[in-house]
Specification:
Belongs to the DNA repair enzymes AP/ExoA family. This is Exodeoxyribonuclease III. Residues 5-251 form the Endonuclease/exonuclease/phosphatase domain. The chain is α+β, with helices and mostly antiparallel strands and 260 residues long. It has helices at 15-25, 44-49, 120-139, 174-185, 191-195, 227-230; strands spanning 2-7, 29-33, 53-57, 65-69, 73-78, 91-98, 101-109, 145-150, 189-190, 204-205, 217-218, 221-225, 233-238, 254-258. It has a 6-stranded mixed sheet. The protein has a 6-stranded mixed sheet with strand order 5-6-7-8-12-9. A two-stranded antiparallel sheet has the order 10-11. Strand 3 and strand 4 form a beta hairpin. Helix 3 runs parallel beside helix 4 (174-185). The longest helix is centred in the middle third of the chain and has 20 residues, at 120-139. It is globular and about 45 Å long. The chain binds one DNA strand of 18 nucleotides through loops.
Length: 260
DNA sequence: ATGACTGGCCCTGCCAGA
């Protein structure tokens, strides 16, 4: 089975690219981030016509996450536990019974956190703490689990074309990277790194400063696997060509393939 | 060398993103 994560940077602006992707790649599950809309204006009928069920959390203008699945989505959780006052649409999780067995999948839009001297950085760190706690409880279920999304974390120097340029940035601060390592220390596997040690495996190129043309990218979109999912890991694809299209998202889709 | 974009919204400059 194949599971894709993609920050689309407005699902309405990216509707044609998304539908093309669903038709051409036809993954079992797609985790979307940055819908930038409420559910009223989500192109739900078009997605359903492409053969996908939808579970989504919307927000006017910002954030927004979705799970698209060829198979029914059950046990949907909207929002990350641990802070009832957090109304930002950044987390949706569901259980999907596919041909190859049952898998629990989350679509995560982790806060950016810049500027770091504002309230936004503590919010990012608190969100990461809540994600660690929730992942810990999910891992106790011993399920095939995929925590996919835009983590807004550059894990290591090899994950940036110009690491020095990111020093002091919320995506790359030592505290940010340490909390990402805390996720891995729970027993989660970074799917791309389990398959490929190379530098230069980017998933995001800024719209500004010719970042795409100069390949000044970063790797911030990740698929973290439970041990039961990692046992079935069969490969990861970064759909880099999406960034070369007209009116692209600044992020490209990343797909993990699990055996069975 | 420097600066460079895109999207949504209070519809028009401003906030947010990374």
């Amino acid at each position: 089975m194949r599971i894709t994560t993609w920050n689309v940077n407005s699902i309405r602006q990216r509707q044609a690219h998304l539908l093309d992707f669903l038709r051409e790649e036809a993954p079992d599950v797609v985790c979307l981030q940055e819908l930038k809309t409420t559910l009223e204006t989500l192109p739900r009928a078009e997605i359903e016509d492409a053969g996908y069920n939808v579970a989504a959390v919307g927000q006017k203008g910002f954030n927004g996450v979705a799970l698209l699945s060829k198979h029914p989505i059950e046990d949907v959780r909207e929002g990350l536990p641990g802070d009832e006052s957090d109304s930002q649409a950044r987390y949706v999780e569901g259980v999907i019974a596919a041909d190859g067995g049952v898998v629990r999948v989350a679509s995560i839009y982790l806060p950016n956190g810049n500027p770091v001297d504002s309230e936004k950085y503590p919010y990012k760190l608190a969100f990461m703490d809540r994600l660690v706690a929730h992942a810990r409880s999910l891992l106790r279920l011993e399920e095939t689990l995929v925590l996919a999304g835009d983590y807004n974390v550059i894990p290591e120097p090899r994950d940036a074309a110009d690491p020095a340029a990111w020093e002091g940035d919320a995506l790359y601060l030592p505290q940010t990277r340490a909390k990402f390592r805390a996720l891995l220390a729970l027993g989660l596997t970074d799917a791309l790194r389990a398959c490929d040690d190379a530098a230069g495996r980017y998933t995001f190129w800024d719209y500004q400063a010719g970042a795409w043309q100069r390949n000044k990218g970063i790797r911030i979109d990740h698929l973290l696997l439970s041990p039961q999912a990692a046992d079935r890991l069969d490969g990861v694809t970064i759909h880099k060509h999406e960034r070369a299209k007209e009116k692209p998202s600044d992020h490209v889709p990343v797909t993990v393939r699990l055996r069975g």
